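Assess the record.
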Amino acid sequence: MRTPVFIITLSCFAVAGCNAGHSAMDGAEQFGAGFGQAATAPMDILNLRPEVIPTVLLQAQANPYDMRNMGRCATIGAEVVRLDDALGPDMDEPPPADGRYMSERAADATAQAALGVVRDTTTDFIPGSNWIRRLSGAARHERDVQAAIQAGRMRRAFLKGMGMQRNCAPPAAPSWFEPARTARR
């Protein structure tokens, strides 16, 4: 009777061990993939590699309450999807299920921490990096990016509110909203 339990326990440890090794390899690959960007972080300080602001965010910044061509639920929903693509999921969306093993999450956290050390090391040797960011325009560009992100979030919230008012289904409204059924005549 003890033998099957022992075999099952041993099998579980073997599978977990294989997964841990696989997770470590994934973490190493993630570190390798991000190393170049972390090592060239001084280019961000010098504004030699500015982040491109998506067009949908620039449009939102220009006029967050623009309702031209937004007369139908489908067009509101399409605009919300474009904003979601640029901004990531909205706060009303449930977080995606993280079906990863603990070893995979640990490998991910370790790779991110190691990349942070590389990024900090490459930027710490630059004296007066705050002044250089200001003089190079990197600080201003970062403020512009943040302003565009804020405008995009504002527009997405506005559009979802308009979608609720017009009885639209998600994504033209928050994910929790259920449109009222209309009576057919």
Q: What stands out?
A: Residues 4-16 have pLDDT under 50 and may be disordered.
